[in-house]
Design brief:
The chain contains seven helices and two strands, in the order H-H-E-E-H-H-H-H-H. By secondary structure, it is mainly alpha-helical. Helix 1 packs across helix 3 and helix 1 runs parallel beside helix 7. The longest helix is centred in the N-terminal third of the chain and has 27 residues.
């Protein structure tokens, strides 16, 4: 599959449920929705070597909202694909993945799972949630922060559909553009301290 402008649009379309799920999660945080779930850490307070496993920023609200919102966005996307020629033309998966909700939930779960190893590593290195490493670790963790969720998505995606290498590479480019842009929105809304 050659790299092309149309493939870039198709890849962006493929990533759109996760992007929309993430933006909806940002909105939920901003509006304070599901506050009770936001106080439930995914690690349940567990520690490793005296340090929190994931930290306070990885919450049940984040996991459930990301999975559910991504599933909902995938359903809307599938409706567009079934009812509009332009959306069907952009779809790489419509003929291969029959259940849009399950597909979206799978992508959302991959996103959440992909962030967890990075969180464990940061806690073990005494890097605060949302913080950057010092010295040479700063740029390394910035890159990992951008791509960890994509790694999780790419890990689970073949359970339903195996992306061609060109699409996987294009997803890296899309992620490196979109992830910092969403982080910038979160900083502007006061939900994060820094981009990255």
């Amino acid at each position: 599959m050659p790299l092309s402008g149309h493939l870039a649009l198709q890849t962006l379309w493929l990533a759109l449920p996760v992007i929309c799920g993430g933006l909806l999660h940002v909105g939920a945080m901003r509006m304070g929705l599901l506050r009770t779930l936001a106080r439930v850490p995914l690690d349940g307070g567990l520690t490793l070597r005296g340090r929190r496993l994931f930290g306070e920023n990885k919450t049940l609200r984040g996991a459930l909202f990301m999975i559910g919102a991504t599933a909902a966005c995938a359903v809307v996307q599938r409706w567009l694909e079934a009812n509009t020629p332009w959306a069907r033309d952009l779809s790489l998966i419509i003929d291969d993945v029959p259940d849009a909700a399950a597909w979206g939930a799978l992508l959302g779960a991959g996103y959440v799972l992909g962030e967890l190893p990075n969180s464990v590593l940061k806690r073990q290195l005494d890097i605060a949630p949302g913080g950057a490493g010092r010295g040479w670790l700063g740029p390394v963790f910035w890159l990992v922060d951008q791509l960890d969720s994509l790694a999780g998505v790419l890990l689970v995606m073949p359970l339903a559909w195996r992306p061609p290498w060109a699409v996987a590479l294009m997803l890296v480019a899309v992620t490196l553009a979109v992830h910092p842009a969403v982080a910038l929105i979160m900083v502007a809304l006061g939900l994060k301290q820094r981009v990255g």
